[in-house]
Amino acid sequence: MLFKRAESEFWYVRYREAREQCLWGTQPQRTFDELMLRYLKETKTIKRSAETDAWYAKALTAYFSGRVLSKLKRADIRGYIAKRRADGLKGGTINREIGLLSSAINRARVEWDWDIPNPVQGMREPEGEGRRVFLTQAQFNALVAAAERNKRAPYLADLITVAVMTGCRRGELLGLEWSRVDLQANAIRLGAMDTKAGKARLVAINQAAREALLRRQAYREKHCPDAAWVFCGRKAKRIAGIKTCFHAARKAAGLVDVRFHDLRHTCGSWLAQAGVPQSHIAEVLGHSTMRMTELHAHRAGHSSGRCRKAGRGTQTGTH
Questions:
Q1: Residue 145, number of CB atoms within 10 A of its CB
Q2: Residue ranges of the domains in the chain?
Q3: Would you say 262 and 135 are in contact if contact means Cβ atoms under 8 Å apart?
Q4: Tell me: the pLDDT tens digits for 193-210?
Q5: Is the pLDDT assigned to residue 189 strictly greater than 60?
Q6: What's the per-residue H, E or C state across the chain?
Q7: What is the model's pTM?
Q8: Distance between first and last Cα of the chain
Q9: pLDDT reading at 274 higher than 60
Q10: Residue 292 pLDDT grade (very low, low, confident, very high; cuts 50, 70, 90)
Q11: CATH code for the part of the protein at 4-111
């Protein structure tokens, strides 16, 4: 568990702070571990990205654990960026990691009255154009077939299918409840709190997505009839993460450069290749700007998608 030691000392730290302030009227030295633990605890239930924040916090902790915040300099942030670059990370991921640190520091300064600097401000790495990866129909079929062979994750093939056919994000699907699935109207209703953009939207279900949801419904009736979640295990618990099983499926399918978010790109790309207007694609994917739609909905022969396969070159996605 993240920050086990820091959490066990949490109340002792609170006592020590109160004592020092009472005796000397000064703030104690604040540490990175104290900052990140408190920030994650306070934002766990109010941020949609709480699960992702925890992953970013692990990387930050490996570098900054034990550091006194008042002594952090811009050189320390540059050192972290250099290390993550050496680890092979791209600018976008690094920016999200240091962005988490900056958000935590700003919260401490504004809401907790901590007298600490924010050396992260203004330090961003160039991100480039971002990933443009999507699947061909054959690659999609191979990925689904590989997922179907994974007996430890019986939900994975259906999850992949619904993701490609609807363009929903991973978090939107893992948090999807049956109460928001209307199989008569062939639609999924996402509330404002369910989406990254904070906007409610109605997601249409095509035949492939409908069949996948019907399989999940049959699984529920057989194993966990009281389950609230569409994608759950036999104990009716919500699936917390799919990193391991998805990695195994993509490896078995020979798709070494595919991430789950690329399934969303695939949906946008297939719609674009079918001649669907970008304005409609933006509504389907729930984008707030057309720029985001342009990145997702690249057409074959215009902005070709890339999907590196083991021992092969790049592939251009087609529907």
A1: 13
A2: 4-111, 137-296
A3: yes
A4: 777 667 788 999 999 999
A5: yes
A6: CCCHHHHHCHHHHHHHHHHHHHHHCCCCCCEHHHHHHHHHHHHCCCCCCHHHHHHHHHHHHHHHCCCEHHHCCHHHHHHHHHHHHHCCCCHHHHHHHHHHHHHHHHHHHHHCCCCCCCCCCCCCCCCCCCCCCCCCHHHHHHHHHHHHCCCCCCCHHHHHHHHHHHCCCHHHHHCCEHHHEECCCCEEEECHHHCCCCCCEEEECCHHHHHHHHHHHHHHHHHCCCCCECCECCCCCECCCCHHHHHHHHHHCCECCCCCHHHHHHHHHHHHHCCCCHHHHHHHHCCCCHHHHHHHCCCCCCCCCCCCECCCCCCCCCC
A7: 0.63
A8: 43
A9: yes
A10: low
A11: 1.10.150.130
Q: Tokens 């540490």 belong to which residue?
A: 31
Residue for token pair 């299918």: 161
What's the topology of domain 137-296?
hpI Integrase; Chain A (1.10.443)
* Token pair recorded at residue 105: 């520091």
147-169 per-position pLDDT tens digit: 999 999 999 999 999 999 999 99
